[in-house]
Design a protein that fits this description.
It is built from five helices and no strands. It is mostly helical. The chain has one domain (2-27, 49-118). Helix 1 packs antiparallel against helix 3 and helix 1 crosses helix 5.
């Protein structure tokens, strides 16, 4: 189980690092969005939230690759992954597979580190 966790954690970290670094350094051209995807992306651009999301992806990717603060990174990246999956499920189904795999990997890591979350749910 530990080897599977290391593999999942490292692959997730590398994918998140690649996505954030390619966003900041413009390594890959962004495909032109059309229809509802363009409206969604324009709304995100007005607020400037993508920079914050990509910084969080970078930090969580580093945490996953290094193995430090993984429990925190699992919690921080979860809402971003939910957004990715919902966006691709509703608006642009082409990227649903990678988003779903990331979400499944995050849920697996949350399950693996479940003992670290026990104190969050303790009634005091």
């Amino acid at each position: 189980m530990k080897i599977i966790m290391i593999i999942v954690r490292t692959l997730m970290g590398l994918l998140l690092l690649f996505a954030s670094v390619s966003f900041f350094f413009k390594l890959m051209p962004m495909p032109q969005a059309t229809g509802q995807a363009k409206v969604y992306n324009d709304g995100l651009a007005v607020v400037g939230i993508m920079n914050i999301v990509k910084v969080l992806e970078l930090l969580c990717g580093l945490a996953f690759v290094t193995g430090r603060f993984v429990t925190l990174a699992v919690v921080v990246i979860f809402p971003i992954l939910i957004n990715i999956v919902l966006f691709h499920a509703v608006v642009a189904p082409s990227g649903l597979t990678s988003g779903a795999l990331l979400l499944v990997g995050d849920l697996f890591l949350a399950y693996y580190y479940r003992r670290n979350y026990v104190s969050l749910f303790a009634i005091k």
